[in-house]
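Quick entry, no commentary yet.
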Amino acid sequence: MKNITVIGMLVADQWEANGNIAGLALLTDDESKYIISPEAFGEDFIAVLRKKIEIRGVLTTRAQERRIRVLAYRLVLPTTSWS
């Protein structure tokens, strides 16, 4: 286990039979995938689905799966500067 900070897009990763979201993951620009631990789920987290966020948390790795227990997160606003 180690503390990490990672930026990526939050996406649904697993679904229940009735179509509700059962799992979330963070996909990074370098194509890494981090599974979000279930205790992080909540309506406020679902509100940032398909948005770029920064997560600070505790990483555990087991059998090629990287899982993050979220300690804090924030929305990453896009930059619009083309200068």
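second:
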Amino acid sequence: MKPWLESTLRELNLTGTMDRPDGFTRLGYSEEEVEAIEAFKKAAENLGLTAYQDQAGNAFARWEGKVDTVVMTGSHLDTVENGGGYDGVAGVLCGLGAVKQLKEGGYQPHHTIEVSCFASEESARFGVSTIGSKSVAGILDYSIEDVTDRHGVSIKEAVEGVGLEWNSLHQAEREDIKSFIELHIEQGTQIEDNGADVGIVRGVACPIRLKVHVEGMAGHTGTTPMGKRQDALVAASPLISFVSNEALALSNASSKPIVATVSTLEVKPNVMNVIPGTVEVGIDIRSVDDELKRRMAAMIKEKCALIEREFNGKIQVDTLVDNTSILLDEELTSRVEQAGKSLGYKTFKMDSGAGHDVMNMAVKCPSALLFIPCEKGISHHPREHSSLEDLSIGVNILAQMLRQEAGE
């Protein structure tokens, strides 16, 4: 299995080596993501599976059972810019690996098994995540069609640019899925810190994402007096420390943690001798406690209103995402935990601070999330890495679960 995992990992990443100093860039609904999905379909067909895509660009590898209700596992192949080759890929790879193991063992499923490769999971391109799985779950907000990337390309334009029809995405919704199990790298060190082999996830801290638009007045840096400036970057800058300090204080005072990050900053015109005229600030807020998230968002909006009164310009705060956090199916999660223990692995119960496709699938069907370790918790970075041993553990647990869920 390990040689197959190693070679297929490279194939899914469209690379001859995982040692890539600049990492991987496969943004949602880009040609690079399309190429990776084609590699997934080829790998699936090599295992004797039927590969197909839906109206949202999601790809599936189908192992036909005696009945059409589907037991599904999988993740995504898109990445952040200059990201790692395991985030998302591990779940797709281990799903295919689990099917390979079952096939080689002579297993015949009763329920149909599918390995999913969801489109545009990362928010790196548009600030909106999990577009593909939201389509499958029937919860995509179609008002996002005009949200643009940094090059001015809208989500609708990107979708249609890879040969899909925006107005057909709703047709991707599914009603035939019995259960969904996602495997993902942890993107942290809790498994390692607790001496465990795998993490059993109870809930997902879905995000609130804000975009703060600060509008001032561009001007010449050498000729505009300091007292007559409307510097948008100066107005926006207090938000950076405010978000960090207030999130820390709120987290320390609460029973459940909260994190908040000023994670993007776009300054225009971004020219050395021009005063910044507009600034867009992206803020990401996460906690499994939805009340904490919304309290933090309200504090940020109040701070922006205060800055606007002091600043001779305009500040607008838009909410890009406000998703309630997801508690995963207790019964299915318990079975995943027992599967791990039955195979001799040490499990650790935890929550996920990162959002994943499973949070959308949980709206549609019983869903569970399994974490494998990633070295030193490094993720969204070229040095992201999970060992072949950890990937093999993931394959073994997924195979055990698919066998149980799909029946004899």
